Every structure is written in C-alpha cells, then in structure tokens.
Amino acid sequence: MNKQGIIFVVVLVGAFVIFNGLKNLSKDVSLNDWLSQAEGYGEAITQHQQSGKPIAVLFYTDWCGSCKVFKAEILASPDVVDFMKHKMLAVKINPERDMNSANLAKQFGVIGYPMLFVVREGGADIQWIRKTSRITTEQFITQMQKAIE
Asked: Thioredoxin domain location, by residue (predicted)?
C-alpha cells in the first residue's frame, strides 16, 4: 500500500472514532429518575429527613461536554443506577435554568461543571466528590460509598 493509501485509511479510521465519540456525547441521558432543580433539592431534603438516605447533588449545564460524558458513561451505567437507587437520593441541578437553582449553586460554591456533592446530616455534612472524569464506574461507586459511610 502506498503512502496516500495509508493516510486515507488513517483518516477514515480517525473519522469513524470521532463520529462514534460524538454520537455517544449527543445521547440524551436525562436521568429521569433523579429529582430536578432547586425544587427537587427541597424535596430531597424532606425525603432525607424521613429516610436518612444521603443526597447526591449534581450541578451541570446543557452545554458542558464533560457533564455529558459523566452522565452517559458513569451515571447512566447499570451499576451506578442500581447503587444510586438503593443507597441515595439524587438531584440534578442546571443553575442556568432558574434563579433558585442558580442561588443554590452559589450556596454550594459551584465553580465549574460537573460538580457533584453528597449531602448528609440534614445538610450539616456536605462533601464534594472531586473525581468525576476519567474514572470507571467502579471507582465512582467506591468514592460514593466512602462519602456516605
């Protein structure tokens, strides 16, 4: 195979890899079973007080590429979905959608996206989950288990 043929194959394979990556990023992972926005956080606090379950609070935006990857590759994985369903209450908050959610993001000290927190003890214990990218689902679950112990 000549040099042009090799370059063509490399470009073709690269385009395929990029297209598949973009396709996965565009998947709508809406986390429908999560409570939503500041109102959902208020509801989660009420449920937390009744059940004692900790609350996972995800701050994200629609334009954030890292948020899309985190939601699609980690939060939507069956193991994480199962863990969250049985061990935690979950709230997703896009601070750009309403003022109450923006104010809540300020209270949490959100400085970038995605940012994930675990809330315990009626809000007296709030932990920031620092590692949300370039991790496996197993590593994520381990972090969450440590945060709720």
From this structure: 11-149
Measuring CA to CA, which residue among 101, 110, 89 is closest to residue 31? Answer: 89
pTM of the model: 0.79
Judge whether 114 and 52 are in contact, CB under 8 Å. Answer: no
Q: Which residues pair with 119 in a beta bridge?
A: 55, 126
Write out pLDDT tens, residues 38-66.
999 999 999 999 999 999 999 999 999 99
For 41-79, the DSSP string reads HHHHHHHHHHH---EEEEE--TT-HHHHHIIIIIITSHH
Structure token pair of residue 110: 């959100």
Residue 110 CB: number of other CB atoms within 10 A? Answer: 19
Kindly report, residue by residue over 12-38, the tens digit of the pLDDT.
555 454 555 444 444 445 688 999 999
CB 88 within 8 A of CB 122: no
Q: Which of 44, 69, 66 is nearest to 54 (CA)?
A: 44
